[in-house]
Amino acid sequence: MTPLTIAAAQSTSVAGDLATNIVRHQRFMQVAAEQGVQLLVFPELSLTGYERGLAAGLAIVPDAKVLQPLRDFAREVGVTSVVGMPIRLADDSPVLIGALVFGADGSLEVYSKQHLHPGEEVAFAPGTGGSMLTIGTDTVALAVCADFSHTRHAASAAEQGAALYAAGVLITENGYAPDTALLQGYANTHSMTVLMANHGGATGGWESAGRSAIWASDGSLIAAAPGTGNVMVVARREAGEWRGHIVDIPEA
Question: Which GO biological process annotations does it have (predicted)?
Answer without folding.
Answer: putrescine biosynthetic process from arginine
